[in-house]
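Example with several molecule types.
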Amino acid sequence: MARSIETSQLTVARAAAALFLQRGLAATSGADIAEAAGISERTVWRYFHNKESCVAPLFAKSWKYYAEELRRWPHFQSIEAHLAECFDLAKQPPEWIADGLLIVRLIATLPDEPDLRPVWLASYHRGEDELAAIIGDRLGRSHGDFDVRLCAAAVLAAIRVIDETISIAAIRYAQEFTTAEVVAQTAKSIRAVSHLPFCDPVEPRPFGGSGPMLSPDAERAGRTE
Amino acid sequence: MARSIETSQLTVARAAAALFLQRGLAATSGADIAEAAGISERTVWRYFHNKESCVAPLFAKSWKYYAEELRRWPHFQSIEAHLAECFDLAKQPPEWIADGLLIVRLIATLPDEPDLRPVWLASYHRGEDELAAIIGDRLGRSHGDFDVRLCAAAVLAAIRVIDETISIAAIRYAQEFTTAEVVAQTAKSIRAVSHLPFCDPVEPRPFGGSGPMLSPDAERAGRTE
DNA sequence: ATATAGTTTGACAGTAACTGCCAAAAATAC
DNA sequence: GTATTTTTGGCAGTTACTGTCAAACTATAT
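Resulting structure tokens for the full complex:
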């Protein structure tokens, strides 16, 4: 049974992250990463088109964690209730802990490794469509609706800021957070930037959607894929 | 009298943008950019540490335009009033028109040039501190305050989404917008994602700031510089 | 105008990042 | 098992990018 390609890429990402953290991005070569990951350099460049994006799968994992939980979010539940339920660290697979630490440490080094930040931002950005779909679904609106996309972008930015704030506080200032604190802060921040009422329980409704804010053309245009 | 270095970099950016738009990022070499910009390749690499970021000055200009106007924003004025005043296209220097078109066209190609998107995102990201300062100033709060930073990130995301939506609508769907439409939509979107009341007139107040949401350490930690 | 100091640039050589190509290996289907 | 497709490694070649140094340019002083 073969490992999926995502798993292989994640292996490379972990190796790359460890090296970047240890000796810095500039001092790490493609050959180093390949060796640490136990594959040929050729395959590294097949997986990623540049050195920095080798860690992208880890960053993506940070968001995918949220995405998966949000997709399961029942319509009748508030965001606070749902997050409290699924953010139980004890429920996470053990490998998550190690990856989580790697991610947090990477985020904390962003100020020192400016070339890593675009990768971080782009990883999060890829979640916008997905989040728009989730929000749209909850509100019975299209994911192409301008307001829905606006909301998704703002919420994703909020989650990103929280990730950054907490990671830096944890690594650089050795601060510790309880799960409850993180959940409360996350929910509060998401609510703060949301102008659509998707955080509260909604009754399931047939797909409908309200009028677009920009013209329909502009709406279609807004989708990135 | 020497041209400032920013001007030189902008020249390179314009040349690079034209080439990227014409034949694509992959088909454009560093030597091509250098030649088109009328400087040596060595200088191109001194200005930018990779090919993609050659267009960053143009992207940055897109945000700086907002930033400058917002810094001038008088405390007693609402955001609608202020934006309406300064978004008068006739008031812009003529070179702005050409650059603006270049920027809009670049944004419209982002779906086809995925390697340009990180540059776009990072350019906007660099405005977060600046915007936090503006918002903080209006509210008499510190720019390090978590809520202020959260608000800045959300507002910047909103402006970015508007830029993307309008650019794609204009280029791919040949839609046209009046200044008034753009201003109204921008102000409305900024308000939508803002949970702090900086959009309305505020009375000038001595620097004070309310209590932090996270602990002071976490607040300091959040700043990226 | 000339000297001096500081900054920016180009030339060129070298290294590291990255691609194309093809054959070996591995997975999958039958 | 064989046939087919997908994934991988090896290696050669190209392009992106850096280090170094001398020439050119700017600025300020006199």
